[in-house]
Amino acid sequence: MIVTGISHVGVQPTVQWQQQQVPMPMYGVSSQATNSTFWTDTNGATDGVIFNMVAAPDVPVTPKTIPFAKGYQAKYGNLPGYAAYQAYDEVFMWADAIKKAGGTDPDKMVEAMEKTDYVGTIGRITFLPKDNQFAHGMRIGEGYITGLMVQWQKGKPVTVWPANVATGKMVFPSFIKLPQ
Predict the structure, then answer these.
(1) Residue 66 to residues 10, 11, 107, 111, 159: CA-CA distances in angstroms?
(2) Alpha helix locations (H) across 77-105?
(3) Integer Cα distance of 166 and 59 in angstroms
(4) Contact (Cβ atoms closer than 8 angstroms) between residue 3 and residue 27
(5) What pTM value is reported for the model?
(6) With b meaning 16 or more CB within 10 Å and e meaning fewer, what string describes 144-167?
(7) Fewer CB atoms < 10 Å away: N or C end of the chain?
(8) Phi-psi region of 177 (alpha: psi -120 to 50; beta: other; left: phi over 0)
(9) Residues 90, 91, 94, 96: is their CA dihedral positive or negative?
(10) pLDDT tens across 101-121, in order?
(11) Is 7 helix (H, G, I), strand (E, B) or coil?
């Protein structure tokens, strides 16, 4: 398996993977793969690539996820990439923190953000306490943010994991050799 950790250079390695018919799945973090233009950007070479997302347009992670994705697509003509979901949620969290802090004083803003408990497009967002090893990181796990694995299939991103929300099963190009 090829485990990716790529951001702004995903087109070339994905096209090379397909052109060279590398017989192993490509899987991991690929920022460009989260954009609905990735299929055309790679001339379809992304077929079978699996990538990580915290929300996807085909899964109701929360009641806000699919309406946001549909609204985004209606306005911009393509599906939201990974950063769009978080940016949308962050606008509401920051507005709420400013309201709770009574302004933009940095210390009061930090205190207000520490108390965040917001259900957004990516899940329930709360932050770890400042004395935690991962201070102010988002809580992850059941009931918070869990993440998804999405695979490009015939021009569309299809959620393939976790099984309880998957909208499809993994399908690989014929050149991929899976263990039996």
Answers:
(1) 26, 27, 35, 31, 13
(2) 82-101
(3) 8
(4) yes
(5) 0.85
(6) ebeebbbbbbeeebbbbbeeeebe
(7) C
(8) beta
(9) negative
(10) 999 999 999 999 999 999 999
(11) coil
Q: Cα–Cα distances in Å, from 84 out to 55, 101, 117, 140, 164?
A: 10, 26, 20, 19, 24
Written as six digits, the tokens of 81 are: 């990439």
Predicted confidence (pLDDT) at residue 11 exceeds the cutoff of 90: no
Cis before 67? omega within 30: no
- The radius of gyration of the chain's CA atoms, rounded to the nearest angstrom, is 18
For 52-79, how does the pLDDT look when each residue is reduced to its tens digit (9 = 90+)? Answer: 999 999 899 999 999 999 999 999 998 8
| β-strand partners of 29 | 5
Q: Kindly provide the b/e burial profile for residues 6-38, where b requires at least 16 CB atoms within 10 angstroms of the residue's own CB.
A: beeebbebbbebbeeeeeebbbbbbbbbbbbeb
Name all domains of the chain by residue range, CATH numbers in brackets: 1-54+147-180 (3.40.50.2300)
pLDDT at 10 over 80: no
